[in-house]
Amino acid sequence: MTEYPLVSVLAVCYNHARFVVECLDGIRNQSYPNIEIIIVDDCSKDDSVAVINNWIKQHQVECRFIAHSENQGVCRTLNDALGHAQGKYISLIATDDAWLPDKITRQVAIMETMPETVGILYSDAYQVDENGQQLADMFIAAHCKCECMPEGFKPIPEGDILERLIFANFIPAMTTLIRRSVYDKVGLYDENLLYEDWDFWLRAANHFHFAYSDYPSANYRILSTSMMRTVLSNRNVRAEQTFFLINSKILGMHGISQLSRSLTVERLSSNARFMYTMNHPDASSALFASFTATREFLDLYFSLLAFIGISENRYHRIKDYLQWRLSGFLSLLKK
Predict the structure, then answer these.
(1) Is 235 in contact with 229 (CB distance < 8 Å)?
(2) Which domains occur in the chain, in start order?
(3) Which of 20, 56, 223, 265 is deepest in the core (most CB within 10 A)?
(4) How distant, in Å, are the alpha carbons of 160, 191, 213, 231 from that of 80?
(5) pLDDT digits (tens, 9 = 90+) for 70-90
(6) How many Å apart are CA 123 and CA 142, to the nearest integer?
(7) Per-residue pLDDT reduced to its tens digit, 84-109
(8) How far are the Cα atoms of 87, 156, 198 from residue 150, in angstroms, in the given order?
């Protein structure tokens, strides 16, 4: 490779004071010679900002460091970083993860041989614990353990991978190299969502092909306090709203298989009903949208209840009361 196109590295920090130096060292030690570094701290509550400033001063690193005075969330934070990126390629990383030294060199060399229709290149990642000890499963294998996956699911797909992404979000974001033209085509990260990557991969896969590198390029750290670990282990209303919005977008995509559509419709109804259970203000509209997709009468019924202000708890109390009154009335008739 005679020329080295600029790669914009976006490093996003939130309460990663313990790990951020390892991440930044991994960026600084990349063998690739032409990168710009953009670091954004999203109003960390620990001393991440001080640690980052000390690292920049100690190593005299030329970079842009943005410290938010208020927490913006991961989607808005990434969009903030993207607004400063000048590279032909974008590579992102959360600062509790770390790259292997040849990550960018190997990936740019591959992407420069690919047609423009290939928008994103990714690899597998090692999974490590809080102390950096490597775990048994690689990232992709761990994220492909889903009962809903059809027989014959390929764990490392290339090309048109939209259908596979509908079944599972198996792409390690910290391993990707993304053409800037992908963002120009499909837009930035959706700031209405709790997390960024699955929605973006789906939108990108609707227009671009993906490529795969067999060089595991990162260490993905699993923390008990990480957002995605919390989201996946404990259902909460913000996460369900995010899943609902993403599943709604999937149903709007043309050409998806009936199997993918059926799975998405099932998920959509589950998301909407959970929003109703948790008294989300958008539960009525979510349930009605689900009804238009599922034609499930219960979705319409709960949508009307939510619209007139009857919560699920109140609905069950009314139902129990009416059943009690009815049983009493039937007992009188038998006498």
Answers:
(1) no
(2) 7-232 (3.90.550.10), 235-314 (no CATH)
(3) 20
(4) 29, 11, 28, 24
(5) 999 999 999 999 999 999 999
(6) 14
(7) 999 999 999 999 999 999 999 999 99
(8) 38, 15, 19
